Amino acid sequence: MSGETVATPPALPAGTLRVIPLGGLGEIGRNMTVFEFDGKLLIVDCGVLFPEENQPGVDLILPDFEPIRDRLGDVVGVVLTHGHEDHIGAVPYLLKLKSDLPLIGSGLTLALVEAKLKEHRIKPYTLTVREGQREKIGPFDLEFVSVNHSIPDALAVAIRTPAGLVLATGDFKMDQLPLDGRLTDLRAFGRLGEEGVDLFMVDSTNADVPGFTALERSIGPVLDQVIGKAPRRVIVASFSSHVHRVQQVLDAAAAHGRRLAFLGRSMVRNMTIAEDLGYLHVPEGVLIDYKKAKDLPDDDIVYMSTGSQGEPMAVLSRMANLDHAIEPGPGDTVILASSLIPGNENAVYRVINGLTKLGATVVHKGNAKVHVSGHAAAGELLYCYNIVQPRNVLPIHGEHRHLRANAQLAIDTGVPAERAILGENGTVVDLKDGVATVVGQLDLGFVYVDGSTVGEITDADLKDRRILGEEGFISVIVVVDSQTGKVISGPEVHARGFAEDDAVFEDVKPKIAAALAEAAGNGVRDTHALSQIVRRTIGRWVSQRLRRRPMIVPLVIEA
């Protein structure tokens, strides 16, 4: 396995394909890869990453577009493998840089993207493709392959150039009895393998899970049983794009004579699109508007909502906090029909605890089979490696443990260890003559969306927010004589986020005054230098006396 990198990649040699993952390696989310050949760029996916608890105030995290920001005129297309947020969520922010970048994807994927772009007032150029279709986009010859995932219409993409053939799976699994009958096309994988796949870029999310991912249809009987036995209202939370899961909830509601209402803006939007395009089949008379649903008897209604990941502003979290018109209580059943994205565990369990405290029965992956993954487990990946027999492998879409496990599977099936590349975001891989080589490592960062600002919040800002939230805040105001430097008023000390009263700081005020007097005696008059003296003095005292490291904002004023 290769993890060796150098810093700055060389100029791209003629006849070589360059591959640069800008996101999705070492993390679950913000999937994005750039391919370069003959001066042209092809982008595959452009997703977001959702913030963790140590990133307070952040709404979304984008891939770092910096390596291509000055080359957007060279981009011949943006291929979107499927419609999940971690693959399409950053498209509006990319198109704000250049709005006419062509978007290429399946019908449902593009419909979801277009609805998202409409909110940003962007009308995109699109090319709708389907499995089996080939398109020549600049120097890239693209072939689209059907794959099964937890959203309809997912596609893998084969990228042919004179430098070699790349097969990128996108997110996929090998459900042999899919609800929509749409299998992962292993015959196409085998045909491409016979042609010769020079670089296989493979979904790693479940690479460390042995065996095979359970069938999606195995969820149906469990949902049917739980909904059938529920004495009052049923609230089901899932991803707002999981059409197959929503279909099974709709079918279970219909089977037990219940009506179903969608909750959450994205759930309503996505399911309306899915129904309009024929991907969601709503039994007659089952769907009801949320506002009318409130008038039904409690045992006649199922709510299908967002918030399965504990997002604070999503419907389910607001219900748990009694900040929603629907207030769960005794006899209500809440089903979390989704996975736990790494990093969201605490938020999800906080919601589960909140709902349980209100008296609701909470059914989740930990106590019932109400979710199966959308990603291939180790057994399925082994099948793919044996079918495709790639010359080189670059595991994508996963944390480091997933990437390593995926690379090991490739090696176990005969891929030479030096051809199983363990990369990270910004790793530059060149492909030529059947050999993939790491030639550089770009320095990429996190791009934070915070309200209306994009990229303005830094890691230093987030550190300040964490300190404010965890350690508190102290302000110190001192007025000094501009001629002598002596203190003529203060110091005034005010604190926020401390259990102690401000009176506790009476002991440190003489120390601050003494430190300033000493500085004045040494001829120090600069207010910035005096502010730093105040910061150090009170900082040491608070650390020793109160065992805290708060944010300290000193203000020294000359008079």
Describe the structure.
It is a single chain. The protein is globular, with a radius of gyration of 28 Å. The protein is built from 16 helices and 25 strands. The chain has 559 residues and is α/β, with parallel strands linked by helices.
Supply database-style keywords:
559 residues, alpha/beta, 8-stranded mixed β-sheet, 6-stranded mixed β-sheet, 16 helices, 30% helix
Give a short overview.
The protein is an alpha/beta fold and 559 residues long.
Provide the helix percentage: 25-40%
| Number of alpha- plus pi-helical segments | 16
Shape: globular
The profile of the biggest β sheet is: 8 strands, mixed
Give, in spatial order, the strands making up the sheet with the most strands. 7-6-5-3-2-1-19-20
What is the straight-line distance between the termini? Answer: 66 Å
Rg, Cα atoms, Å: 28 Å
Mean pLDDT: 86
Pairing-aware structural class of the strands and helices? Answer: alpha/beta
User: Low-confidence spans: pLDDT under 50, at least 5 residues?
Assistant: 1-6
Number of strands: 25
- The fraction of residues in strands falls at 15-25%
Domain Metallo-beta-lactamase: 29-223
Family: Belongs to the metallo-beta-lactamase superfamily. RNA-metabolizing metallo-beta-lactamase-like family. Bacterial RNase J subfamily.
Subunit structure: Homodimer, may be a subunit of the RNA degradosome.
Keywords: Cytoplasm, Endonuclease, Exonuclease, Hydrolase, Metal-binding, Nuclease, RNA-binding, rRNA processing, Zinc
Topology:
Layout (H helix, E strand, L loop, with lengths): L16 E7 L8 E6 L2 E5 L15 E3 L3 H4 L5 E5 L5 H4 L2 H5 L7 E3 L1 H13 L6 E3 L5 E4 L2 E7 L8 E7 L2 E5 L17 H10 L3 E5 L15 H11 L4 E4 L5 H13 L3 E4 L2 H12 L13 H4 L7 E5 L9 H6 L12 E4 L8 H13 L3 E3 L14 H11 L4 E4 L3 H13 L14 E6 L2 E7 L5 E4 L2 E2 L4 H13 L1 E8 L6 E10 L12 H13 L5 H20 L4 E8 L1
Parallel strand pairs: 3-5, 5-6, 6-7, 11-12, 12-18, 13-15, 13-16, 14-15, 16-17, 23-25
Antiparallel strand pairs: 1-2, 1-19, 2-3, 4-21, 8-9, 9-10, 10-11, 19-20, 21-22, 23-24
Helix pairs in contact: 4-8, 6-7, 12-13, 15-16
